[in-house]
């Protein structure tokens, strides 16, 4: 991919910069981006570990119309995938590249919209006991989706919001209006709840991150034992729940994603693709 980037950057075939404030200028840019994106997809298919596993058939044309008709609208990107699929890593990489090129971006996780279950945890003695007694942690009903939807609507309209914060300390406490999120030109939202019915339609770009189940299990167990100090027994029990919940609640939305990305792909390669996309938008003089 680096060779492809270098070839593009070293090209002397610069394009006279059109007026992107005009519809004609935006149509020219979109046509150029469409051509280059199809080249990227063609190149990616030949790789041993491609980053693009699937692309929705109408994504390119639909996104193109959005760029032409609503160029000043906030761009909302939703990233979902089963637990330990690599969605957080993909989100961080996308955000890093956006910031690297001094583009304004806001990031939030749907994990902060879990319901406050502190009273239930006190009743059952621990989060694990609550889960083992049938509490469905990843179900849509376990999230404050009405608040998430309202916050995303406000952000899309250019308004800043104060989002809740779910404390990751096992207490199940959700602190309302705890953190300010500024409405930037690009808004990236990551988490399993991103594609739930109540919020999925607000996103301009829907990304599903997919990884091999064995790799996901290894990642999850390692994270549970090393970062959260769980016993192997409890980590395996939690994994069994996570695997079933992912199949039930998250995986069905794979078919609705605009892009299905490979959570096992090399991050450097993924970064080069993002840098290349940025480079081709600057191929005007």
UniProtKB/TrEMBL annotation:
Under what name is this protein listed? AAA family ATPase
Entry's Pfam families?
A: PRK (PF00485)
Organism domain of life: Bacteria
The GO molecular function terms of this record are: ATP binding; kinase activity
What organism is the protein native to?
Candidatus Scatousia excrementigallinarum
Q: Which residues form the Phosphoribulokinase/uridine kinase domain?
A: 77-262
